[in-house]
Specification:
single chain; alpha/beta
C-alpha cells in the first residue's frame, strides 16, 4: 500500500488456496480485492486436486467463498484465447455467473 497499490487481484493460477482470498479481504477490505478465475481452454488453472475436488467444483466453491468474504469483482480469463482475436469464449459460464451472482462486477478476457 505504501507504493500506491489500491486493489489486489487473487488469480487462481497462482493463489495457494481459498485462505489467500480470506487473508486479502480481512487485511485490506473486500472492496479492494478482485478474484481472477484463470482458465486455459476452459479448464481451471491451479492445483485444486489437493483440495480433493474436481476443477469445476473448485471453481464454484471458490466463487462461493469469495462472495462470502464480500468480494464483488470477478475477472474471468481464458489464457488460451488471449491474443487469438476470437472474442470471449465463455458465454455460457458468464451467463451462469451472472445468474448466480448478479452483484459481481464481471470482467471477461480471452
Amino acid at each position: 500500500l505504501k507504493s500506491g497499490v489500491t486493489h489486489f487481484v487473487a488469480g487462481t493460477e497462482t493463489v495457494s488456496g481459498e485462505g489467500t482470498i480470506g487473508l486479502l479481504t480481512e487485511t485490506h477490505g473486500a472492496d479492494r480485492v478482485a478474484l481472477s478465475i484463470d482458465l486455459r481452454a476452459g479448464e481451471l488453472i491451479g492445483n485444486w486436486q489437493r483440495f480433493g475436488v474436481t476443477a469445476d467444483e473448485a471453481y464454484w466453491s471458490l466463487l462461493q467463498f469469495a462472495h462470502g468474504f464480500g468480494v464483488r469483482r470477478l475477472i474471468l480469463l481464458d489464457l488460451a484465447a488471449v491474443g487469438m482475436r476470437s472474442g470471449p469464449t465463455m458465454t455460457d459460464r458468464v451467463r451462469s455467473i451472472r445468474q448466480t451472482y448478479p452483484n459481481f462486477e464481471l470482467l471477461v478476457g480471452g
